[in-house]
UniProtKB/TrEMBL annotation:
Gene3D superfamilies: Calponin-like domain. One of its GO terms (molecular function) is actin filament binding. It comes from Tetraodon nigroviridis. Keywords: Actin-binding, Membrane, Phosphoprotein, Repeat, Transmembrane, Transmembrane helix. One of its GO terms (biological process) is nuclear migration. This is Calmin.
Length: 227
């Protein structure tokens, strides 16, 4: 999850002038600068003018508080997230914060549903995959074989995927093929690696899969209306 979220953040921060790159999410986020830059890119609002660069904890807390206030004003869900946890590099809190930002600015924007974004995204996926006989019940184990990713790609461009060949490959081979094809043929940034969807490890990380899959709807919004 940390890797997926870091890649997602860097995807947006590379648009900054000059570009910013996050190397260690839990460390680099602690002074608030990365969060302000990210939210500027996502929202179009100016936040960095309020950034105070300092090694003193009080200034870092103040920077992060401004970020949290900005998010609260937009009704971004922030349960049990406070500036001190972010400034201290609390891993679970930071992942929760980034997830809520992704959910609001990407998944909700792509589905145009703020309260039911995940449900709407799943319905969109099911509509695209069922025509190829691929059942998707969730954003977890349904994706472990790689067939769901390939079916979504095929629904966008049928020439890119041969599902009969996919049935003869291993899940890892299918996942690699899906991520590679989506990146090079559809322009979908590669946020995932095969091991991120490997059910034999800890099970697929649902939030990482949602983050990745919502990119398809974001890149091809016209498909939402087409059956």
């Amino acid at each position: 999850q940390k890797r997926t979220f870091t890649r997602w953040i860097n995807l947006h921060l590379e648009k900054c002038e000059p570009p910013i790159e996050v190397e260690d999410l839990f460390q680099d986020i602690q002074d608030g600068h990365v969060l302000m830059a990210l939210l500027e890119e996502l929202s179009g609002c100016k936040l960095l003018h309020g950034f105070k660069k300092s090694s003193h904890r009080i200034f870092r807390l103040n920077n992060i508080a401004k970020v949290l206030s900005f998010l609260e004003e937009r009704n971004v869900k922030l349960v049990s997230i406070d500036a001190a946890d972010v400034a201290d590099g609390n891993a679970s809190i930071i992942l929760g914060l980034i997830w809520n930002i992704i959910l609001f600015f990407q998944a909700s924007a792509a589905t145009r549903e703020h309260n039911k974004a995940i449900k709407k995204l799943l319905q969109w996926v099911q509509k695209r995959t069922r025509r190829f006989g691929v059942a998707v019940q969730d954003f977890g184990k349904s994706w472990a074989s790689g067939l769901a990713f390939l079916a979504v790609i095929k629904s966008i461009d049928p020439s890119l995927v041969d599902l009969r060949k996919a049935l003869l490959r291993t899940p890892r081979e299918n996942l690699e093929e899906a991520f590679r094809t989506a990146h090079y043929s559809l322009g979908i940034p590669r946020l995932l690696e095969p091991e991120d969807s490997d059910v034999s490890v800890n099970g697929p990380d649902e939030q990482s899969i949602i983050t990745y899959v919502s990119q398809f709807l974001e890149h091809f919004p016209g498909l939402e209306e087409v059956e």
